Amino acid sequence: MALGKDYASQECSIARALEIVGERWTLLVVRDAFYGVRRYNDFLVHLGIPRAVLAARLQTLTTEGVLEKRRYQQSPPRDEYVLTERGLALWPTLRALGLWGRDHFTDAQLRVFRHATCGTERELGRYDECPDCGTVVPVSDVEMLPGPGADPNPADPISRVMLKPKRLLEPIELESV
Ligand SMILES: [Zn+2]
């Protein structure tokens, strides 16, 4: 094991979690999976990540049970990556990290999240509570819209799909662009 690659001497559960999601790019791959990205090439174009790094991150996330690999095409064989229960449980972490980033490091808000099913137009609260109906909104009922900081004319097709409101986890269909 390369120096500093894990936290084997730590029994802390945060250290244990960081062994899985603490590498560079990993949480952004997970974030994109929440946004509906499932396919290798789609992660690639949206993240601008080196191919080998993406392959390694997808491998780790699959091995650790955060993502599940599903074959969607037989010839040539193509797989997609879908969040498992263990992966879905990362949503509050990602959400809190995003809010922390906005509070302390950037004013740019690229995404707005709101309750998809009650007709509200107001943003979810810090704990994903709906300001209108009071529900703590499950991730599958969260609607994502572009925020005031979103590029209205992005270069990559995944970002263009996300200019329209969509639910989290709903697969991104590039054909619809
Ligand atoms: Zn609501």
TrEMBL record:
Origin superkingdom: Bacteria
Every HTH hxlR-type domain range: 12-109
Keyword Iron (UniProt): no
Keywords, sorted A to Z: DNA-binding, Transcription, Transcription regulation
Name of the molecule in the record: Helix-turn-helix domain-containing protein
Organism: Streptomyces gibsoniae
Keyword DNA-binding: yes
